[in-house]
């Protein structure tokens, strides 16, 4: 089990889990399409660590980028990846709080 650190949290990959699945499980905002290294939509910047690929991905990957759908961490990773920003919901607060007559 490998330790993964992102901009917002640390977590451990579960047995048999891909890095993309771990990022999804922990609520991170990662785009994806094919889940097999063809499209490159899931690419993220790796700030520290090393990964390997069982098969070289077909998607173009710049130095310092990885495809979490198909890479295998070789050591603990630090990724430039964040949890989605939560927009304020109009219904989270009582709009009439304090405006009621008693």
From TrEMBL:
Source organism (scientific name): Neisseria leonii
User: Which GO MF term does the entry hold, naming one?
Assistant: 2 iron, 2 sulfur cluster binding
Which superkingdom is the protein from? Bacteria
In this record, what's one Pfam family? Fer2
Q: Where is the 2Fe-2S ferredoxin-type domain?
A: 1-89
PROSITE patterns hit by this protein: 2FE2S_FER_1, 2FE2S_FER_2
InterPro entries listed in its UniProt record: 2Fe-2S_ferredoxin-like_sf, 2Fe-2S_ferredoxin-type, 2Fe2S_fd_BS, Beta-grasp_dom_sf
Return the protein name: Class I ribonucleotide reductase maintenance protein YfaE
């Amino acid at each position: 089990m490998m330790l993964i650190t992102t901009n917002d949290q640390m977590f451990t990959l579960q047995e048999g889990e891909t890095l993309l699945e771990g990022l999804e499980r922990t609520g991170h905002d990662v785009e994806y399409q094919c889940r097999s290294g063809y499209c490159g939509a899931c690419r993220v910047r790796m700030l520290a660590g090393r990964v390997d690929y069982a098969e070289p991905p077909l998607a173009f990957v710049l130095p310092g980028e990885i495809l979490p759908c198909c890479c295998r961490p070789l050591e603990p990773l630090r990724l430039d990846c964040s949890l989605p920003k939560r927009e304020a919901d109009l219904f989270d607060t009582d709009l009439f709080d304090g405006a009621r007559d008693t």
